[in-house]
Design a protein that fits this description.
single chain; about 160 residues; mainly beta; Elongation Factor Tu (Ef-tu), domain 3; two-stranded antiparallel sheet; 3 helices; about 10% helix; globular
Length: about 160
């Protein structure tokens, strides 16, 4: 079995008034030339859900109101996974290149969450013009912008 060593490049900092990605000093120069990108793909570690027990879970009871009664973990966005890796697209509000701070409006990660990598969002590689999704989630928003005003509390069963 192959094993991999992953080293965080930074941390999510969530305060009441702002959310930022704070890069470790040795990675700050990696921000060069991000000017002009409106969004980033952030790869982060579900650190609050990382245990041997949680990594063994492969099925979950119905997590969404209209979903099947039981779902495989790979058909959910659950933090409980064999490798607790998360991917979130965020809007860039501001980048402080000297301090290595990226200000974003929101990310679905907790304060102190390790960030593994960031990549620029580019429509030519990241956007799918006509994606297909199962019937149970077709009523979900069609964009990140619409998701911000969608009542997600009505969707989840926990």
């Amino acid at each position: 079995m192959n094993t991999f060593q992953v080293k965080p490049i930074g941390t999510i900092i969530s305060k009441e008034s702002e959310t930022t990605i704070a890069l470790n000093k040795e990675y700050i120069e990696g921000l060069r030339a991000l000017d002009g990108f409106s969004h980033l793909s952030v790869i982060w570690w579900f650190s609050d859900y990382d245990s041997e027990e949680m990594r063994k879970v492969l099925e979950t009871p119905q997590p969404y109101r209209q979903a099947p009664d039981v779902m495989g973990i790979f058909s959910t966005r659950s933090p409980i996974r064999p490798n607790p890796i998360a991917l979130t697209t965020v809007q860039v509000i501001h980048i402080n290149y000297e301090e290595g701070i990226i200000e974003v409006p929101y990310i679905d990660a907790n304060n102190g969450t390790p960030v593994l990598d960031i990549k620029p969002y580019t429509p030519s590689l990241d956007r799918v013009e006509e994606p297909c999704v199962p019937k149970w989630c077709r009523h979900w928003p069609k964009s990140l912008e619409q998701s911000g005003i969608f009542n997600w509390e009505e969707e989840f069963l926990y």
